Amino acid sequence: MSKFIIREKLFFHAGRIFAFLCLAILLGIFIVLLIQSLPAIKNFGFSFILSSQWSPNQEKFGGLSAIYGSLMGTILAMIFAIPLSLGISIFLNEICPKRLKNIIGSSIDLLAAIPSIVYGMWGLFYLTPVIGKIFGGMGLGILSASIILSIMILPIMSAITRDCMQTTPDILKESAYALGATKSEVIKDVIIPYVKIGIIGGIILSLGRALGETMAVTFVIGNSHKIATSLLTPATNIPATLANEFAEADSEIYYSSLFYLALILFCLSFLIIATAKFYLMKKIQQNHQGKK
Amino acid sequence: MKKKNLIINKRMRYSQAILVISSIFALLALSILFLILGTLFYKGFHALGLNIFLKDTASPWENGGLRNVIIGQLILSFGALLIGMPLGVLGGTYLREYAKNPRLANIIRNINDVMMATPSIVIATFIYAVIVVPMGHFSGWAGIIALSIIMLPIILKTTDDMLSLVPDSLREASMALGSPKYKTILNVVYRGAKTGILTGILLAFSRITGEVAPLLFTSLNSAFFTFNLNQPFPSLTITMFQYASSPYKEWQELGFGGAFLLALFILGINITIKIILHKNKGKK
Hints:
Number of helices of chain B: 11
Largest sheet of chain B: none
Largest sheet of chain A: 2 strands, antiparallel
Largest interface: A-B, 88 and 93 residues
Radius of gyration of chain A: 23 Å
Oligomer: heterodimer
Structural class of chain B: mainly alpha
Strand content of chain A: under 5%
């Protein structure tokens, strides 16, 4: 019997340690990034976020251009991706013939698995020349980056939206049709309100993904630390700066500034997910209470 | 009467316009996605040859291959799997089966979700500060640990979710027969949640196989064929990154060959997942 007790305890404690490991790692990431970026925080303080000067020679660093690039690229990507993914889900759920629906749906699921570097390479070799031809210049910049980002998050976003839309009870739709509603009215007034929370959840999830995406953007954003006045001039964002310059950084303050950027990115993504969870949890709870 | 018809017509036309627009959006999005896949397959298939599997990476005019980096990538991914799988499964089991304080368990679940969304490049900087700097050089171990940290929350979450689907009556029946709790979990609960947990593991595996950012400052890359994890370690994805941004045509082509192989591998894993889930559905 004692053999069982020992094994039981082993199983229990191992599980407990591993479950708390997540907590420890997340806390560890925050603490380590904070410690590493302390020199930069002491040196530049809060003005790091407001300054766009990035000159390793003079040891002066400011993160504004990278932060601006990250936010701008992500917002634009969402603007491109949201209508497209809504279109895909409406098409699959309401218009598409049943036989095609499964095939297209599964292939979108599969596209979500394609690694980001593949999208990045495609962007570099095929998208930037086209953008360059249409708008002039090299085609490197926030516009290309946000297009690539929106293509990357499209499969995830539309898979979530489509799955949510499928959960609308048929009886709701049928009663709306019976009252004489047209298809677009059913979509607008029945389906979308019913699945709103799910769609918003999917959008926020892909927002977090787009914000932290590194390789696809690094290929096409152009890597210049000037604030891009136009969407077509080379710019940078936080992940691309980290990917490009981490290996080159030669002074302590340079390293520390990069860690500062990483800390900002970490906090941003943490905030996004936390708001999403908080907001959605509240909404879902309200819904439950409403139904009771 | 006529006026009423007009209104109905207007609404019908509006509805049709909306449907046409959403169809156009859908077709546009789908054609972009398949265009990417098409060019990748076309370019990649052309670059593919026996050379890729038989020769190591070399300078652009030496007609090299990708053998060392493909094997390196496989070692990194499977290494991460070996660490991440037991940690994630046991952690998820604890949350669902043992955690007495539901509030604490929920906090861990939320933290886990935040971890899942943490950008992989941030995890790379963390590992750089914690492992690479103290060791003094880039190493394969650092890469494996970075990848397993990305993997852990995905496996933990799916295990947790899948265990919650196993009915309590099964657990009670096993306990009533006198088996200790860990045996109940191993022999009864895991058996019920097997496919779900396996799916989560495969999903996490396919996710980390394509990752570049976490390897950038952990295992870096190596041009040699090596099994020594204490040194910079060869990886396919970083080689693709370097080759694609290089000015040499030969390297760019090899990069596309690599991209094709990687996409094929990951698609293969995901199709396997779909087949497993489909089979399971059939049983029920």
